Amino acid sequence: MWRQATRRSAQIRGRLLSTSAPAACAGAAVPGPCIVHKRGTDILHDPWFNKVLALFFFSPDLAVPARAPASRGLRFRSGTQDTAFPMTERDRLGLRGLLPPRVMSFEQQYNRFSECASLCAEFGREITHCRFANVGDARVRACCVAVNSYRSLEHNTRGEPETIVALAKWRILNRLHDRNETLYYRVLIDNIKDFAPIIYTPTVGLVCENYSGLFRRPRGMYFSAKDKGEMMSMIYNWPAEKVDMIVVTDGSRILGLGDLGVQGIGIPIGKLDVYVAAAGINPQKVLPIMLDVGTNNAKLLEDKLYLGLRQPRLEGEEYLSVVDEFMEAVHARWPKAVVQFEDFQMKWAFETLQRYRNRFCMFNDDVQGTAGVALAGLLGAVRAQGRPLTDFTKQKIVVVGAGSAGIGVLSMAKQAMLRMPGINRSGEGHNQFWVLDKDGLITKARKGLDPAVARFARGFGPDEVQDLHEGASLVEVVKKVKPHVLLGLSGVGGIFNEEVLKAMKESDSPRPAIFAMSNPTTKAECTPEDVFKYVGENAVFASGSPFSNVTLGNGRKGYANQANNMYLFPGIGLGALLSGARHISDGMLQAAAECLASYITDDEIRKGILFPSISSIRHITARVGAAVVRAAVDEDLAEGRCDVDARDLKSMTESDTVDYVARKMWYPIYSPLVNDK
Ligand SMILES: NC(=O)c1ccc[n+]([C@@H]2O[C@H](COP(=O)([O-])OP(=O)(O)OC[C@H]3O[C@@H](n4cnc5c(N)ncnc54)[C@H](O)[C@@H]3O)[C@@H](O)[C@H]2O)c1
Ligand SMILES: O=C(O)C[C@H](O)C(=O)O
Ligand SMILES: [Mg+2]
């Protein structure tokens, strides 16, 4: 059947847009005409249908400092609009007279692009190269303007505090998102490496912290403790008929910033932007959700501008009954939607994962997505030492942080070791991990340990040669263990200080690996500069938030890899969606991690590159997504989706699956709003 679908899609491409309904399935790269029930200004005000770009970038409220040339020159053009509505659409959708009369031709648009470029140059702006193939297209031109405006901002705000600049950039993108979704996602996809740090980690953390002040219009849905008993009907208030991907948070552990209550909604929004950019999920089918069950953040409770419930967090059964009701409501309306849990505090992250993972198609990104990314990095660190992967079982790994992320990583790494030859399947007597939390090294002497953590507590048996004690400090542990890997998921910025990093110099590995995975940047356990300075130039480094590479002596580069779950969650979600899996199994997650681990070549690994560039995120996601689909098929969990059923999926080869997944990715181009006839 899927082969028929392929043929059909080729035919559609041939006839270009002769269908009368929008494609119903996820992705569908070829746009059919979009049925639009709106007319006139309602279309212009709908970011989904809008094809107008006003040059809003130079408006005065951009937080651009007054001395910036932007406020001198380009503002006189602030009324300029680019419009790509053809005359047929203007006639039939009541748009005539509501737009400037010119519909730009290829040549005219190209010229206007050049004019804009020279105007920018006139004011000393840096015009970056255009990455778009077809520069004459209205959207493309607008894209260039947006990108150039952004670059101008970078140029004009040099020397300003980083937070001000980052928020100004976020506002530029957010405004575009509010006005013209198609263009926003085009800009994002074509510039993901530059824009990911704005719409995602680290700037999204700043946005969440300042959310009440930045709030302009709602995005996503809010279910609060006050909505108990109403959620089943509330879910139908969401205007889109179909939803494929949901990211939900309760705001209780936003990055390493703690409880931000309702302000945490920025995280699901950012994660879903990454879903659109990386996995090609149709943005009309994503839904960010905030479960507002109160907050224990005293500052927010006192803040007059705070937009959430002013009450302490619900606990126990009261809390779970809210999440249960929400999950049932989602499942009733969109039984095939994938639900990603994000930034829940540890106790609820584990509890909800156990509670729902066999009933719904869901996963916890902080526990499971992070684990896969870290495992890929750990395997890369073995390869960097020039050792075979089976030597992973001999690596000594110190993990700092025994929370949802740390324990997720430890569990997956342990499972991976147990699958390797020569290890007793029960794992007995094999503990390559030293785990620390805020009270130091965790040993079996610790009272009241969570069972998930207790599995990794050090004993005092004959294997314990390092003479360490309960609560030992990080530096003590590193000095005695001489680990191959030091991995931080503690949320404590700078905890890998000079003393700790110098101790890592004595590591038993010829390429000591330091993973400072906490977010945002201020919470990173250390910087790459410090790693290459104190541990040595042979170290390998990865962090959760992006850092720049470090220039080493002798013309070499110290690579600042980014070990962030954004490499995996889009592929896990997309693979689960396209396979139509009933639930997301350990096998599917493991396949995702292995796929990422194998993405990097030996040559890159030797240089210290452990993760691919974010610029390749769509390519990576197609592969990870396909690996997840194949694993779901192998485990008989795949039920298929739309016109590709389980048998079709089974008949696909590995490369067929990659093609299929890639073809299902949505790409932003304006859909015709009326039939051409
Ligand atoms: N890079 C990624 O993809 C990624 C993914 C998930 C989480 N994270 C980051 O990891 C961090 C932790 O997330 P989490 O969900 O595990 O949080 P969590 O609150 O569940 O756990 C934090 C852990 O750190 C420990 N800790 C606190 N202070 C410490 C100290 N001084 N020394 C040693 N340990 C200390 C705590 O005791 C706890 O065990 C956050 O900053 C988050 O942004 C990064
Ligand atoms: O959001 C991120 O950047 C990664 C991770 O999910 C986190 O919670 O830090
Ligand atoms: Mg997270």
UniProtKB/TrEMBL annotation:
<feature type="binding site">
    <location>
        <position position="366"/>
    </location>
    <ligand>
        <name>a divalent metal cation</name>
    </ligand>
</feature>
<feature type="binding site">
    <location>
        <position position="519"/>
    </location>
    <ligand>
        <name>(S)-malate</name>
    </ligand>
</feature>
<dbReference type="GO" id="GO:0046872">
    <property type="term" value="F:metal ion binding"/>
</dbReference>
<keyword id="KW-0520">NAD</keyword>
<dbReference type="InterPro" id="IPR001891">
    <property type="entry name" value="Malic_OxRdtase"/>
</dbReference>
<feature type="binding site">
    <location>
        <position position="564"/>
    </location>
    <ligand>
        <name>(S)-malate</name>
    </ligand>
</feature>
<comment type="similarity">
    <text>Belongs to the malic enzymes family.</text>
</comment>
<feature type="active site" description="Proton acceptor">
    <location>
        <position position="271"/>
    </location>
</feature>
<dbReference type="GO" id="GO:0006108">
    <property type="term" value="P:malate metabolic process"/>
</dbReference>
<dbReference type="GO" id="GO:0051287">
    <property type="term" value="F:NAD binding"/>
</dbReference>
<feature type="domain" description="Malic enzyme NAD-binding">
    <location>
        <begin position="367"/>
        <end position="633"/>
    </location>
</feature>
<dbReference type="InterPro" id="IPR012302">
    <property type="entry name" value="Malic_NAD-bd"/>
</dbReference>
<feature type="binding site">
    <location>
        <position position="253"/>
    </location>
    <ligand>
        <name>(S)-malate</name>
    </ligand>
</feature>
<keyword id="KW-0809">Transit peptide</keyword>
<feature type="binding site">
    <location>
        <position position="342"/>
    </location>
    <ligand>
        <name>a divalent metal cation</name>
    </ligand>
</feature>
<keyword id="KW-0496">Mitochondrion</keyword>
<protein>
    <recommendedName>
        <fullName>Malic enzyme</fullName>
    </recommendedName>
</protein>
<dbReference type="GO" id="GO:0042802">
    <property type="term" value="F:identical protein binding"/>
</dbReference>
<dbReference type="GO" id="GO:0005739">
    <property type="term" value="C:mitochondrion"/>
</dbReference>
<dbReference type="InterPro" id="IPR012301">
    <property type="entry name" value="Malic_N_dom"/>
</dbReference>
<feature type="domain" description="Malic enzyme N-terminal">
    <location>
        <begin position="177"/>
        <end position="357"/>
    </location>
</feature>
<dbReference type="InterPro" id="IPR037062">
    <property type="entry name" value="Malic_N_dom_sf"/>
</dbReference>
<dbReference type="InterPro" id="IPR015884">
    <property type="entry name" value="Malic_enzyme_CS"/>
</dbReference>
<feature type="active site" description="Proton donor">
    <location>
        <position position="200"/>
    </location>
</feature>
<dbReference type="Pfam" id="PF03949">
    <property type="entry name" value="Malic_M"/>
</dbReference>
<keyword id="KW-0479">Metal-binding</keyword>
<dbReference type="Pfam" id="PF00390">
    <property type="entry name" value="malic"/>
</dbReference>
<dbReference type="GO" id="GO:0004471">
    <property type="term" value="F:malate dehydrogenase (decarboxylating) (NAD+) activity"/>
</dbReference>
<dbReference type="InterPro" id="IPR046346">
    <property type="entry name" value="Aminoacid_DH-like_N_sf"/>
</dbReference>
<dbReference type="InterPro" id="IPR036291">
    <property type="entry name" value="NAD(P)-bd_dom_sf"/>
</dbReference>
<keyword id="KW-0560">Oxidoreductase</keyword>
<feature type="binding site">
    <location>
        <position position="343"/>
    </location>
    <ligand>
        <name>a divalent metal cation</name>
    </ligand>
</feature>
